[in-house]
Every structure is written in structure tokens, then in C-alpha cells.
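re: ur msg from earlier - yeah i can do the iron/sulfur cluster complex, just paste it... oh wait u already did. ok heres what im feeding in:
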Amino acid sequence: MQLGLDFSTPQLVRVTPAKLSTWGDCPRRYRMAYLDRPAPPRGGARAPSTLGAVVHLALRALFDLPTGQRTPERAAALVDKYWSSEGFRDQEQVRRYRDRARAWVADYATDLEHDGTEAVGLEQWVSVATDRIVAEGRVDRIDRRGAELVVVDYKTGRKPTDDDARRAPALALYAVATERTLRRTCRQVELHHVPSGTVAAWRHDDASLRAHVQAAEATAGEIAEAAAELEAGGDADRLFPTRPAPRCGSCDMRRSCPTGKAAAPEREPWAQLEP
Ligand code: SF4
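and the outut:
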């Protein structure tokens, strides 16, 4: 069994927000996704993930265009370019959501025409080392506003609130890592809900960012400890317990997890489409 944690810098554990979140949800899923080799087979595509990926790709491509070419028509055409039907129920559902996604991204482009957004990073890889971890990840978009940078994360599912932006560990770590990587102050984090055209935002201060970093360090410590015990021959199921919950119904590892199968019936791949 190989370990997915990277100890390339002796005392520092290399983590991403996705890894920290997976561990927080279910340590067993963490083990299967990041440590078990060969990796267990994953479940098939789910429509909400497909839809989110298409919208992310279209918006990424939109911002690759010169400012004057970011028109609603080009935006809608980019949804067509990157469309995938994986995980949808049938052609009728595909048509409905493809039309919706075209409208969402076109409306987003319309708003852009007037707000003077200056994107300085697209799917930018950022990284920061603290005393205990190296936190890194890919930010959907980094904007420059005045003298500061802003972390922008696109959302296509449930409409988020400002409190979601405040509490999101990933956004806080991205802000710290963005500031360190691009060497410019970054305190503002935003969740751009593309279907509604709304923005949930939070402005962090030093204390709130420090609290998020400390929480990430504590979680990374738990992961590293479990991984080290596993490598030393510890009991894998004890070190990485299951955490059965309704989410087991859509967990991509459930076919290898008897506990999860018993905890919740399997959800259809399109079950959590919103709105
Ligand atoms: S099915 Fe549930 S318990 Fe099993 S790995 Fe997935 S989230 Fe964890």
C-alpha cells in the first residue's frame, strides 16, 4: 500500500482543500481515494458534477478571450463546445439543463460587460507553507481590485450564503496561498453562483485566516498520524473509520464500502441537480 501524503519537506504535510474536506466527511473515503493502491473503482459520472465542470470550462475559456469578445453569444457557444451529457437521465433532461447552462453563462457574460473585472489568474495553482503544512490548490479565478486580490469560486448547485463564504476552509486557504504566491494582499473571498447571478462574499481578517489555517493544520496532523500508523502496520479500518450518512447514497466509493451501502440507498446520478 502506498501513501498519498507527500512528505517531501520533512515536517510539512502537503494538503489540498479537497483532501482536508474528504477526511472531514469520511476518513474511509479519504483512504480509498488517496491512499489505497490500486485505487478502488469509482462510481460513474453524476449529472451535477458534469454540469459544474461544463460551466467551469466555459467560464475559463470566456476569460481567455480578449475583453471585447466576452459576449453573451460567445459565452453560450462555449457551453456547447464543452458540453457533456454524462450522468443525465435522458435527452429531455440534457436539453433542459444545456439550455439553462447556456443562459446562466450568457447572463454572467452580460454582467461582466459592465463591471470591469480584471482577472489575473484562471485556474491558478497557489501554494503556501506554514509551520506544519504546505496547503495548495487550484483557484477558479483570481481578480485584482484596486491594490488587492480576490478569490473567486464558481458554484452551480445550491445557492450559497455569505456565511458559507466565511466558513469555507478552501476559500480561506486559497486566500492565504494566493497572497503568498502572487505577493499581493488577498482578504476577499467570493462564491459566484452562476445559475442565479448572485455573489456570496466574505472579507477575512488576519484572525479569521489564522483560525482557518490552524484548523487545516490540525486536520492535516490527524491525517498524517493515521497515515504513519497505517504505514507502520496499523489496522486500516480502525485508523480510517467509515462515517455513514445520507451522502453515502452518492459517494463514488460506495461500491467498495458495505457500511455506506447499508447506510443509504443509492441515489440516481441526476438526483441532486439544482435548481
Ligand atoms: S459510502 Fe459513506 S461510509 Fe463509505 S466511504 Fe463513502 S461516505 Fe464513507
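cool cool. Residues 1-9 have pLDDT under 50 and may be disordered. ping me if u need the other ligands too
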